Amino acid sequence: MSWDLPPSRIRELLRRGAELVLHPKPEWLDELDAATLAGPARQQVAEDPVLAAAIRRSNRSNLRYWAAANIRAPGERVPADLGDVPLAVARDLVRRGLDDAMLGAYRSGQSVALRYWIEIVFTLTSDPEELQVLLDVSCRSIATYIEDTVDAIAAQMDRERADLTHGTHAERREAVTLLLDGAPLSPQRAQQRLGYRLEGAHWAAVIWSDDPDIDLADLDRAADLLAVAAGDPRPLTVLASAATRWVWVHGEPDLARLHATAAEIPAARIAIGRRRVDLDGFRRSHHDALTVQRMLARLGAPRQIATYADVELVALLTADRERADQFVAGALGDLATAPPELREAVRTFVAAGCNATAAAARLYTHRNTLLRRLARAERLLPVPLADNLIPVAAALEIQHWHTGT
């Protein structure tokens, strides 16, 4: 494609606009992220905290790359962005079989970015002729940059697909995917390919990180720590994506031990499924772990390690985040924004069967102190606790996982 440089005045305006792109408004970035993750075709990506975080990083990478190119050489054709961030996204999407649907995310992001850019352009000049030329040049630049990047990413995905047909990790991933999808793969054949026994009890885990700076070897360390805590010398670990490991062990993990050892790698997060049995249990425990992971991401919960037993109720109650927030506000009233010790007093009191002595012991506080906190909390509730015990308890549990307090 031929590429003529615009006049110097237009190039200067383009450079000034690109400088503004490097400092986008937070609400505009939120809109961009929402657009690239919206729609049924991208639902699986939006629900996966690792992939969703990667897409958000890619959005920012795309913006910075185009803007930096136009600051450095305004008006010149911007080459495709083949940096570490977009290539990592391509690799992970191929590994999950989600690559084709995601190429449309670039174009969804383009439409939002173009609206933001037009808003910037109208702050640079009010001259009608300059506006016409600047919009024509910049829209052509953005469209060409996105098309070139999509083509380059598609080519990278083709190479990733070819790579996935070879090697031990690919064989494990293929066999596990078939088992999880319920394909007619005999357990004996699967066990041979995986080196993992499918009979008996399983505890599945998802180990991941949404920290872009994590050393990915730390995720493998976390998988090893889980196996040690479970007393299983032969766990099954599958490389689900660059920043995600799927793990199965045969022993129940010692959570106290795992908390102590995993604290050394705080960027690694661990979601653990319920104990399940045999081949069906292999699948179901994995889906349990995915449910835990998605709930932690949905609520922005800060917990490093969580089990399905911990979160089963909260996961069900928060499937619709907006309605869950409305439920919490209605059940707690002013208690929702009260000091954390008041909410924890009520939460512990209910968990102790409304026994103040037992609750005070769990909180390591004097019984009279607990009673004073309960009395303060009672005044903040819209309905007396005794008349609304279950909704208040459920709302406090949701808020506990959301805030960590």
UniProtKB/TrEMBL annotation:
Residues 342-387 form the PucR C-terminal helix-turn-helix domain. Transmembrane segments: none annotated. One of its GO terms (molecular function) is DNA binding. Residues 191-295 form the CdaR GGDEF-like domain. It comes from the Bacteria. InterPro entries: CdaR-like_regulators, CdaR_GGDEF, PucR_C-HTH_dom, PucR_C-HTH_sf. Keywords: DNA-binding. Belongs to the CdaR family. This is DNA-binding transcriptional regulator, PucR family.
